[in-house]
Amino acid sequence: MIRAVIIDDELDAREHLKFLLSSDCPDVSIVGEAISVASGISAIEKLAPNLIFLDINLPDGSGFNILKNFQTIDFGIVFVTAYSEYAIEAFRYSALHYLLKPIDPEDLTKAVKKAANELSKQNLETRLKSLYYNLQNNSDKSKKVVLTTNTNWFVINSDEIILCKSEKNYTEFHISDGRNITVSKTIKDYDDLLSPHGFFRVHKQYLININHIKSFDKKGTGVLYMTNNYSIPVSARVRTQLLKFIINL
Asked: Which residues are CB-contacts of 133 (< 8 A; sequence separation ≥ 6)?
């Protein structure tokens, strides 16, 4: 059984979340509630939950102030937020779970399942640091991307990613320091995430960082040469789009 605490100053929001959890997530037991930063810290210290549902905006500060109070975070977190689109992007980059208000039951079930699968890892500091950075640097093209493998979390600056290569249901990241990191997400997930930040899908198998292009044979074979000496075919249908994209950067 997952012991959970809800931290949200809106009574209706807490009641709605409790109703959805009782209906759709029988493995979750609500052991406490809090309505502020101060009461949230107290609830976590006294009740030692496995999981918290955390609102961002609280009467006496931010939900992040609660997390900063703990040197070691040994509980899962699902953020509950009405934040704007740019902030949601920051959550996605940081591989942290979030629910948009009003909460969709299907999204809740997915978030709880993912958070429950990670409870054994008990270490969120890396992803939270990434989230803080991305929220504070909204206008910066460089983002911190959290990549998850079977054994590790890696935080990579997006400008260090040379290219992403699709391997069926996996994506292989080629990093400027020579590392290759393979994660169990499709390349479409990263196309949606990285395209606004200087990345371009040049082929169904490849997503590339424009800033790491070394040369482009645009008239011949249509091959891109990247800074790691990787050669990539460019789909004929996107060559003109690619050139326009580079010019407009």
From this structure: 144
| Residue bearing tokens 């409790």 | 18
**Is 215:179 a contact under the CB 8 Å cutoff?**
no
Q: Kindly list the domain boundaries of the chain, sorted by start residue.
A: 2-135, 143-248
**Which strand (E) or helix (H) includes residue 225?**
strand 223-226
> Each residue of 161-185: pLDDT tens digit?
999 999 888 999 999 999 999 998 8
Give 55-116 as a 3 state SS string. ECEECCEEHHHHHHCCCCCCCEEEEEECCCHHHHHHHHHCCCEEEECCCCHHHHHHHHHHHH
CATH (residue range 143-248): 2.40.50.1020
Residue with the two structure tokens 């509980």: 75
Rounded to 10°, the helix 187-194/85-93 angle is: 140
Report field, pTM of the whole predicted structure over 0.85: no
Q: What average pLDDT does the segment 1-6 reach?
A: 94
Q: pLDDT by residue (tens digit) across 67-113? A: 888 877 778 888 888 876 656 766 766 657 888 888 999 999 988 88
